[in-house]
């Protein structure tokens, strides 16, 4: 008894929700003719209304849909508009040209910085690096696997070409 009174009370308090029933009448052909050409120029409100009415029609039996409604609903759902729109003509050329310009500009900037930069320090000559190797051998640096190890045959710290004769 107590439970039934709660159920009755909750039914009377709950707001009534209106549900849109599936539309049973077909959409008019003038509404659907050339929807592919008109879709982009239609206002968003009109696009939404058309899609909602087609969606309501599709909730029922698909055998009742007209061929025009089937075609329009497919095109609206999967057509080349919005995020699936085809790129404008010449977009690939613009991207390629922009990329080439960016690479060339960065190369020119690199060369300009190299030309305006200071010369290599005196410690970046072959002779200096060979002297560094000898010093490190005398100090027994890295005696297990490095330059001071027995039988080491690597270049050590030599990485530069010989200094130019002046």
Automatic annotation (TrEMBL):
InterPro entries: Cyt_c_oxidase_su4_fam (IPR004203), Cyt_c_oxidase_su4_sf (IPR036639)
Recorded superkingdom: Eukaryota
Any one annotated GO CC term: mitochondrial inner membrane
Keyword entries, A-Z: Membrane, Mitochondrion, Mitochondrion inner membrane, Oxidoreductase, Transit peptide, Transmembrane, Transmembrane helix
Subcellular location: Mitochondrion inner membrane
Spans through the membrane: 95-113
Membrane topology recorded in Swiss-Prot or TrEMBL: Single-pass membrane protein
Known pathway: Energy metabolism; oxidative phosphorylation
Main location: mitochondrion
Biological processes annotated in GO: mitochondrial electron transport, cytochrome c to oxygen
Molecular-function GO term, any one: oxidoreductase activity
Residue segments, region Disordered: 146-166
Pfam family, one: COX4
Family designation: Belongs to the cytochrome c oxidase IV family.
UniProt protein name: Cytochrome c oxidase polypeptide V
The species this protein was found in: Ascobolus immersus RN42
Organism classification: Eukaryota, Fungi, Dikarya, Ascomycota, Pezizomycotina
